[in-house]
């Protein structure tokens, strides 16, 4: 059975997709720490990130780095946060988000009811930043 992430990648359920390439996809989480909170996910359904082949893990981390560059440019945060947890969906993924404080590094403080218009605006802002950084070939429309 496909994971919810695979269903998003296939367009079976909606998602705010930011980045797409042959090995990875990045899209917004539905419960962000901050607007701009992005998940970077391998297309291949692998439950635990340590089980990814090294070349795929390198690629996924490379995409996370590029998306983080976009987050830095778009939102000018104190830091870009990163977490790999993997308990919520059995499909390896990296959380990256524009962070203002260490206290954001907990899932308990996630916004369970984010504003749709603010999410759309943040997605547009991040996509534009990634295009300006030269990654336009991989930025979703």
TrEMBL record:
Q: Which InterPro entries match?
A: Histidine_triad_HIT, HIT-like, HIT-like_sf
- The portions of this protein that span the membrane are none
Gene3D superfamilies from the xrefs? HIT-like (3.30.428.10)
Q: Which Pfam families match?
A: HIT
Q: Motif range for Histidine triad motif?
A: 91-95
Specify the HIT domain's residue ranges. 4-107
Name of protein = HIT family protein
């Amino acid at each position: 059975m496909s994971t919810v992430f695979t269903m998003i990648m296939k367009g079976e359920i909606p998602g705010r997709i930011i980045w797409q390439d042959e090995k990875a996809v990045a899209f917004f989480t539905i419960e962000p720490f901050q607007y701009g909170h992005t998940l970077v996910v391998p297309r291949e359904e692998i439950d635990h990130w340590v089980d990814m082949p090294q070349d795929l893990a390198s690629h996924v981390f490379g995409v996370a780095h590029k998306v983080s560059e976009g987050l830095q440019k778009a939102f000018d945060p104190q830091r870009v946060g990163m977490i790999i947890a993997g308990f919520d969906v059995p499909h390896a993924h990296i959380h990256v988000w524009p962070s203002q404080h260490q206290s954001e590094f907990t899932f308990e403080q996630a916004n369970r009811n984010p504003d749709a218009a603010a999410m759309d605006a943040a997605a547009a802002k991040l996509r534009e930043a990634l295009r300006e950084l030269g990654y336009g070939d991989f930025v979703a429309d």
